[in-house]
Amino acid sequence: MTLTKNKYYFEALDNYPYSLPDCLEALNYALSYDPEDADSLCLMGRIYSETLIDYEKAKLYFEEAMQYNVTNLNTPQYYIKCLLDNEDLEQAEKLIEYSLKIKGIDKSRLLMHKSLLFEIKFEYKKALEPLEEAKKFSYNKGMIDFLEERKKFLKLKIDADKPKKKSIKKKKETK
């Protein structure tokens, strides 16, 4: 049964996101063989989160996947992104902290999400810290380049934010 379930899971993964009907058909077969498979549940969560933009339904699938396998390496990164997109910031922060303790997980990607969390909260300076830490866990040039670009982008936001604060102070002083 496991081989059949894996066959359908990989077929679904291969079809995502380009052929959703084929993806969903294979994914439903995989879940019928093993309704507790964390990877299949995670992929279903991704479909709801990334394609259908139904974050609440996606969260149900991600939560179920986490219940069945709390050390799954795939689920946390997609679940965190869903939480950030849905502005469930407190829950995302807790999941990031928990996930960073999972052995073998891509810490640079999680730290990138942590930076995004701070950016969403308009805490741009705090958002730079996880990017620096993420560089320590990055093992390819593409990721390091991406992190450097994110840092530049955040610094632009910090600089753009400074004049506004000064002009607000000046307005207060003139009153």
Principal-axes geometry comes out as elongated
Strand count, sense and closure of the main sheet?
A: none
Mean pLDDT: 92
Q: Stretches where pLDDT falls below 50 for ≥5 residues?
A: none
Distance linking N and C termini? 75 Å
Radius of gyration: 20 Å
Give the structural class.
mainly alpha
Beta-strand percentage? under 5%
Number of strands: 0
Output the helix-strand order: HHHHHHHHH
- What percentage of residues falls in helices of 4 or more residues? over 70%
Total of DSSP H or I helical runs spanning 4+ residues: 9
Question: How does this structure look, described?
Answer:
This protein is mostly helical and about 180 residues long. Helix content is about 80%, strand content about 0%. The chain has nine helices and no strands. The chain has helices at about 1-15, 20-35, 40-50, 55-70, 75-85, 90-100, 105-120, 125-135, 140-175. Helix 6 (about 90-100) runs antiparallel to helix 7. The chain is elongated and about 65 Å long. The chain starts with a helix and ends with a helix. The model has no long low-confidence stretch (mean pLDDT about 90).
In short:
By secondary structure, this protein is mainly α.
